[in-house]
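Hello, quick one for you while I still have it in my head. A protein chain has come my way and I'm curious about its shape. Can you walk me through what the tokens say about the fold? No rush at all, and the record is pasted right below.
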Amino acid sequence: MNAINFFSRLIFFFLLYIFLFALIRLFDNSAIVFYQGNNLIIVMIISLILFDWFRNKNLKFIIDNTPFYFCAGVLCFSFLTTFPVILDRSITLHMYNFLAHSTQGVTVDQIRNDFIAEFVFHHSAIEKRVIEQEVLGNISKSDNNIYLTESGYNSYRFFQFLNKLFNISPTY
């Protein structure tokens, strides 16, 4: 595959991913954005491999195109984690939205109160994250209490390591 063909296929795949992901979110915005986006990437890559197989009936063609499949998946995953996932969780974007709908200046306390009322309570941010982490196996619930599992503790230690490695203050 020459470079022009590679990049034109890559752009087409990426734009198709964005279109399909937006369409899926339009009809089902209750699912966890990260997993929904990843599942779509996997389905699209497998579908493309199957399409290429039925079109060419040549295993060498599939093997030769492995770098393309890999790049397509990485490009879509990078987009997913850079935009939709951040949009789903961003305190900054919530603050921007609040300020954009304000006709006059607001105080930090007003932003904080709106964040708690809207993001935390109205949009059930904590409940969403509890469900997400329970599905991942990082937490478990027992007698109305939530506990960190061994997997969750390992995730916690990993993120603590990254915080130290990249000198990030864990203000969450």
User: Anything to note?
Assistant: The radius of gyration is 21 Å.
